[in-house]
Amino acid sequence: MRDRGRFARAISAAVDRIEARLNTDESMLRGCAGLLAARPDLTPEEFHAYARRLELEQWYPGVQGVGFAQRFREKDAEAIEAGLRSRGFPGLRVWPHSTGEERTAVVMLEPQDRRNRAAMGYDMFTDPIRREAMERARDEASAAISGKVTLVQEIDPRRQVGFVIYVPVYRGGEIPRSLQARRESLIGWVYSPFRADDLFVAIFGSEVEPVLEFRVYDGPEAGPARLLHDRGFTAPRSETLITTERLSFGGREWTLTFTALPALRGGSLMPALAALLIGSAISFVIFVLSVRESEARRRAEEALAGLQHSLDEQRRYEVRLREEGRVNSILRRLGISLAAELDPDRLAQLVAGEATALTGAEFGVMFDAAPEPRLLASAGRERENFASLPVQKLARACGSSGTVRIESAQPGEFDGAPVRSLLAVPITSRTAHLLGGLAFVHSAPGHFTQQHERLVAGIAAQASIALDNARLLRDLQDADRRKDEFLAVLGHELRNPLAPVITALEVMKRDPSSAERQFAIFERQSRHMVRIVDELLDVSRISRGKIELQKERLSVRDALAKAADSLSPMARARDQKLTVSFPPRPLAIDADPVRLEQILGNLLSNAIKYTPAGGEVELTARELDGQLEVRVRDTGIGIPAEALQSLFQPFVQVPGTKDYSTGGLGIGLALVRGFVELHGGSVRAESAGPGKGSTFIVLLPGATEGVTQAEVRPLAARAHHGRVLVIDDNIDAATTLSEAVALDGHEVRVAHDGPSALRVALEFSPDVILLDIGLPAMDGYEVVRRLRELPKARGALIVALTGFGQQSDRQRALAAGFDEHLVKPVELDTVTAVLRRRLGAA
């Protein structure tokens, strides 16, 4: 009976190990499928980097590789073959040849060893066994395992049989609900080929003393033609412990035959013979003393107690089996969910909830590895009893050295929370970087066991892989978003200075006497474009270490004055107060004059751009501990606390600003930091928050203390009049466009922001309004909405003139109330044609 019990447990453990390994490999494939569904344009290089992060040999032994079989039509075969040849497979064609309309080809397979390279371009749809599994995976939207096959990677004389696991990849990432939709939106299959002998050796090769001989057959019956794997041990011919089990996975059934090996048996029959002799002696004594009723009763009670003990043992064994089934079910569900989920917050809640249920904890949490740990998720049926439990204390108990288990905590040790048992495990990446941790508590001492330790450690390892996958996807999405934002802003910044240049050319053709004024506009706008290009090149040179400073001995006072003088027109135009505080006595530093001017100019121009009209900008300098401290303070829009750290990264701007008029590519502060660090200094930003202004502090070698103030006073603004209303915050663009329109005999008025445009429209009743969308304070979409509400402007033709020229921008403009949408730079003839269609010739 004991031998049969050990035999049953050994078989159950073997089947569980096979099933767990297949579930783990399926989870890995689902993670790859999720990545390809989210990124259908994933390049082979990115797939190679992802596969290398998986570390297949260490974490998924027995897997031949992981690859992607792309689905395509026959007409696309040449493009697929050309792509494979360009990646180092000269002369490669999709093989074998097929006349079917729907085909597949292995386009990515990692690792790229000599075996896997032999499979590139293989059309698995040509093999009926593989095709059946692929179609089943496609139609059922689940993992599917193929029948017994010989892999195309078997290029050596000694060949193994094997099988393939497929996971479908659908376009858009969501699984279509109908069968027809799944067939139409299928992109291809993520798959892994397995050599059967290698897989089972990886699962069972570490056993010190095997107790089972087994064979694995493909299908519901055993037979030589169906044999996948023979363990190769020889059991005695007289062995009676033999059984057959069946394992279902991925829509396929395997038959496993088990035979006990001698190591499983309990030993010789001598104890049984001894028990027989002793029993005979006892029987004789009982027979002699059977007349004594009390003795008979005592022995009957002993027999009853033995029977009760056996029943108790059976019940405990059944409870253990049920618990093992529950644990396996949770682990299987968790593995599948972790592979499919790519949202970090849902991942945290999923891990915390399943792990809490698995350990039977009353309360469980997941936290990050910040200096002040932050709670990511919590779970538990008694969580209200642990409301006072601080996550920081749990994080300190966890640490990073390994799993911590406390069987009996002292009362009050955890700030009054009823914690008597604790289990905590760190979550680390494959590079041993601490990501966070899991902690579970219970009000009863000794609740958590070594088995709980092992289970939670395994969950933490799976969680780290899932979090890495989510982080990789988030990084890819952020990079793609920042690229799109940069290209949109770059297009806007380049079109804006081109608009007045093109218009000025047209004006000069019609009115040669205005050439001098138009040439001044050319120079200003050309310099602006050169500055944009120079800044882009400077960022590139700094990142590659190609900039060398040309240092000179410079006067601090002269450098501050030059920077203030160059930016004072910009401050006057915005009705701002620009104040400069000089050191009280002469002060010199060793610096590159051109780069120092860029540092101060960028900081001042940013302060002016992000400060509203009537605000203040202050430039000060003093000596501080042997360094020159330069401060640029403004009363502008301020900076959120979370943006202070990333503000000096390339292409990063203050979040939440809709004011397109400030412009910029988000590279000015990156240049400031690069030039300051080249001088051996540092720069930082301070702000009390949005709407409370900001201060930028630069430290360079230098100086002495002192304050001398010089103030730049604002000038009054000018206005123009006419029947056509031109609204643009770019003064050159508004001036040249108004002059060009006036040449056709139309009256023109100009406004540079939304509020003033509304006032002019009330006074003037314009017939045509040429409106820029990127305005300060109130953008063009808001302005056109308010103009349509004015009785004197409701019937006007409102034309959008903007640097935003994508189709979505045009659709948004027309939906907002614009009659037409023109992209800067626009030819004057186009504007004239629009005016004449509405107003007629002057």
Outline the structure in words.
45% of the residues lie in helices and 20% in strands. It is of the alpha+beta class. It has a six-stranded mixed sheet with strand order 20-21-19-18-16-22, with helices on one face. A hairpin with a 6-residue loop joins strand 10 (363-368) and strand 11.
Summarize the structure.
The protein has 842 residues and is α+β, with helices and mostly antiparallel strands.
Q: Which stretches of 5+ consecutive residues score pLDDT under 50? A: 706-722
Q: What summary fits the major beta sheet? A: 6 strands, mixed
Q: What structural class do helix, strand and pairing data support?
A: alpha+beta
**Average residue pLDDT:** 83
Residues in helices, as a percent range = 40-55%
Tell me the distance between the termini. 111 Å
Instruction: Tell me the strand order in the biggest sheet.
Output: 20-21-19-18-16-22
> How many helical elements?
22
What shape does the CA trace take? elongated
Output the radius of gyration: 39 Å
**Number of strand elements:** 27
- Beta-strand fraction estimate: 15-25%
